[in-house]
């Protein structure tokens, strides 16, 4: 068995596995709330009245204020931990061992995000407590690009409410590569 074959088997073994930690869902630190929606809308200049105007939203198909659906990822972000951030390479939270760390150990030390795709099932409502589970969905064969040689790694995040109803899914893809020199 060659090193490339063993490496590919390790990549394939990631598929369907949690991206890190215990594999348990990450639960939002706060329920969906109007102040955070307002901050998001003003930051992105999205003044949709179903996000901001209770009277308008009550008469809409939603029957009340809803969150912009692409805020799903925002709701589950933990509060940043500044202490020790330099030692964590600028990551604002403590993380457990990454099950894909062997990719970096194999020399694919550079990373660039390539795309993110959302599928929305329903808009989050005020008071929803959102949780997310994340699993590796796909790892490409080795690809050569202008950046270098590497693998596209995709993980799937599934967002649910407090009742387990799926709100949406997000596919996030990065390219882990050995940079051209």
From TrEMBL:
Signal peptide (UniProt feature, chain positions): none
The FAS1-like dehydratase domain, residue ranges: 30-166
The name this protein goes by in its record: MaoC dehydratase-like protein
UniProt source species: Mycolicibacterium moriokaense
Lineage start: Bacteria, Bacillati, Actinomycetota, Actinomycetes, Mycobacteriales
């Amino acid at each position: 068995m060659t090193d490339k074959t063993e490496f590919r088997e390790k990549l394939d073994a990631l598929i369907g596995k949690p991206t890190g930690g215990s594999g348990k869902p990450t639960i939002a630190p706060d329920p969906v709330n109007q102040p955070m929606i307002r901050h998001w809308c003003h930051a992105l200049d999205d003044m949709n009245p179903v996000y901001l105007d209770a009277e308008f939203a009550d008469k809409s198909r939603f029957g009340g204020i809803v969150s912009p659906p692409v805020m799903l990822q925002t709701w589950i972000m933990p509060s940043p931990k500044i202490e020790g951030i330099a030692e964590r390479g600028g990551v604002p939270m403590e993380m457990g061992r990454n099950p894909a760390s062997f990719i970096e150990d194999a020399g694919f030390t550079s990373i660039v995000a390539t795309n993110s795709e959302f599928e929305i099932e329903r808009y989050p409502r005020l008071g929803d407590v959102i949780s997310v589970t994340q699993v590796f969905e796909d790892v490409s064969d080795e690809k050569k690009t202008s950046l270098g040689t590497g693998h596209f790694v995709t993980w799937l995040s599934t967002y649910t409410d407090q009742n387990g109803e799926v709100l949406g899914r997000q596919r996030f893809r990065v390219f882990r590569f050995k940079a051209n020199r």
